Amino acid sequence: MISKILVPTDGSKAAQKAALYAVDLAKQLNATVIALSIIDKRSLTGETVPAGNTSRHLIEPIEDYLREAAEGYTAEIKKLCNKNGVQSKTVITAGHPVEAIVKEALRAKVNLIIMGSHGKSALAAAVLGSVTYGVIHKDTKIPVLIVRR
Ligand code: ATP
Ligand code: MN
């Protein structure tokens, strides 16, 4: 029985397409949608600037900006749910997208994850985005449905 569907979004075209698919399916199944957006910590520390050298006053405005963006992406899905009479919830967390998606999927005990094959990255030729690749290779036993671009 599919009663809870997790929809991770980075606001990309593919993620929006996945959300449309998810809401349509949720409507048919009378399931709840959880729209999730992760503030990607990799874009704040570590990979470009050494973590120890990144001052809070530099990170905070960027984190605020990313949070606002994430709220916008999830609000859009919530709106789509409301329009279709589908129950929904929005969740924003910060961290590594793969870890955070899997963590929320287990925490909320979802029955299905629906996400895009690609995201916002310019690597258009890649077979699969690294976040999607990471999620499907985690051993959680939660089915993942990938919506193509
Ligand atoms: P890459 O990031 O590996 O360079 P990409 O951006 O094209 O490539 P992914 O980031 O793997 O591809 O995006 C695939 C899907 O993963 C998106 O459609 C979305 O469903 C999900 N996703 C990606 N980033 C996030 C995020 N920060 N929060 C929530 N979901 C995300
Ligand atoms: Mn990406």
Task: Supply database-style keywords.
Rossmann fold, 149 residues, 5 strands, five-stranded parallel β-sheet, alpha/beta, binds manganese (II) ion, binds adenosine-5'-triphosphate, single chain
Outline:
The protein has a 5-stranded parallel sheet, sandwiched between helices.
How many DSSP H or I helices? 4
CATH architecture title = 3-Layer(aba) Sandwich
What spatial order of strands do you see in the largest sheet? Answer: 3-2-1-4-5
CATH superfamily: HUPs
Could you estimate the helical fraction of the residues in percent? Answer: 40-55%
Percent of residues in beta strands: 15-25%
Q: Between the first and last Cα atoms, what is the distance in angstroms? A: 27 Å
Bound molecules: adenosine-5'-triphosphate, manganese (II) ion
Q: Indicate the mean pLDDT.
A: 93
The class by helix and strand makeup works out as: alpha/beta
Characterize the overall form: globular
Order of helices and strands: EHEHEHEHE
- Tell me the total number of β-strands: 5
Largest beta sheet, briefly?
5 strands, parallel
Radius of gyration: 15 Å
Task: Tell me the count of domains.
Answer: 1
CATH topology: Rossmann fold
CATH class: Alpha Beta
Unreliable parts: none
